[in-house]
């Protein structure tokens, strides 16, 4: 019988360094012979990528944001993540439901109980095995974004919004310390990479019973 794969998510405010380090983790795990699904949210399937485009560029209220990301998540979970885990793959996902609690919940002030209900409906108890929270002050993340890309709809939000989002991540980490590991992302690339690889390798080795 195939052992179920590990589900690892990468979280943090925009510009924290998630996308950079998910690639580094993927390279390191592939070099160890791991089979991977590297994916992202919102997105990861043809339908969810269409919803992502709407989400990132069309103005909408917080409930519409929450419904869109959970609709995208449902499709992603059922058609890609669950089959990959069942086949024994390690799934690396750039953002998942913690982002909804942080951005729509803490950032927009949307009702956390409603988000928890949607989480239960959509995920039916499925949760990541490990979440890496790239924690960085919003001013540092803003500098990194300004140096690297044009902002999308959410990235144009003020620093106070990202302060709230950061506190939303802190609350999720405090509520589930066994799953969420804080990475100090306000450090040079090499130190962040080392910290990330150490945590991920522990989890993947653990899943092989080593
Ligand atoms: N630890 C770091 N120190 C300095 N710059 C970084 C660090 N991590 C990432 N960056 C740079 O910051 C920018 C945003 O990183 P990115 O990985 O796209 O962030 P995110 O996916 O979290 O939005 C990129 O140009 C990246 O090279
Ligand atoms: C998954 C998810 C993302 N988001 C936001 C966070 C980001 O601003 C945006 C897209 O995330 P991301 O893919 O990290 O964007 P980029 O590749 O440009 O860094 O969507 C939510 O607001 N709620 C969610 O549930």
In short:
This is Thymidylate kinase. With about 210 residues, the chain is an alpha/beta fold.
Structural notes for this entry:
The protein is 58% helix and 13% strand. It is an alpha/beta fold. Strands 2-3-1-4-5 form a 5-stranded parallel sheet, with helices on both faces. Helix 1 (18-31) packs across helix 8 (189-207) and helix 3 (62-86) runs parallel beside helix 5 (112-123). The radius of gyration is 16 Å and the shape is globular. The model has no long low-confidence stretch (mean pLDDT 96). Bound molecules: adenosine-5'-diphosphate and thymidine-5'-diphosphate (TYD). Adenosine-5'-diphosphate (ADP) is lined by residues 12, 14-20, 144, 148, 185, 187-189, 192. Phosphorylation of dTMP to form dTDP in both de novo and salvage pathways of dTTP synthesis. GO terms for molecular function: dTMP kinase activity. It catalyses: dTMP + ATP = dTDP + ADP.
Q: Strands of the largest sheet, in order across it?
A: 2-3-1-4-5
The radius of gyration is 16 Å
Give the averaged pLDDT, no decimals: 96
Q: State which percent range the strand residues make up.
A: 5-15%
Question: Unreliable segments (pLDDT under 50, ≥5 consecutive)?
Answer: none
Main sheet characteristics: 5 strands, parallel
What order do the helices and strands follow? EHEHHEHHEHHEH
Instruction: Briefly note the structural class of the backbone.
Output: alpha/beta
Q: Indicate the percent of residues in helices.
A: 55-70%
Number of DSSP helices? Answer: 8
Query: How many beta-strand runs?
Result: 5
Ends distance = 18 Å
Bound molecules: adenosine-5'-diphosphate, thymidine-5'-diphosphate
* Morphology call: globular
């Amino acid at each position: 019988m195939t052992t179920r794969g590990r589900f690892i998510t990468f979280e943090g405010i925009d510009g924290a360094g998630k996308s950079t380090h998910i690639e580094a983790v993927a390279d390191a795990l592939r070099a160890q012979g791991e089979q991977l699904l590297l994916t992202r949210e919102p997105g990861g399937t043809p339908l969810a990528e269409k919803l992502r485009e709407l989400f990132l560029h069309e103005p909408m209220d917080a409930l519409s944001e929450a419904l869109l990301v959970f609709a995208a998540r449902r499709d992603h979970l059922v058609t890609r993540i669950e089959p990959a885990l069942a086949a024994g793959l390690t799934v690396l996902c750039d953002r998942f439901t913690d982002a909804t609690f942080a951005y729509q919940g803490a950032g927009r002030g949307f009702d956390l109980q409603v988000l928890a209900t949607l989480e239960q409906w959509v995920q039916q108890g499925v949760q990541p095995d490990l979440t890496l929270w790239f924690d960085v002050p919003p001013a540092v993340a803003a500098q990194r974004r300004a140096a690297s890309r044009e902002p999308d709809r959410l990235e144009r939000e003020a620093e106070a919004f990202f302060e709230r989002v950061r506190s939303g991540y802190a609350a999720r980490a405090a509520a589930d310390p066994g799953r969420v590991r804080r990475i100090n992302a306000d450090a040079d690339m090499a130190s962040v990479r080392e910290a990330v690889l150490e945590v991920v390798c522990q989890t993947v080795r653990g899943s092989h019973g080593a």
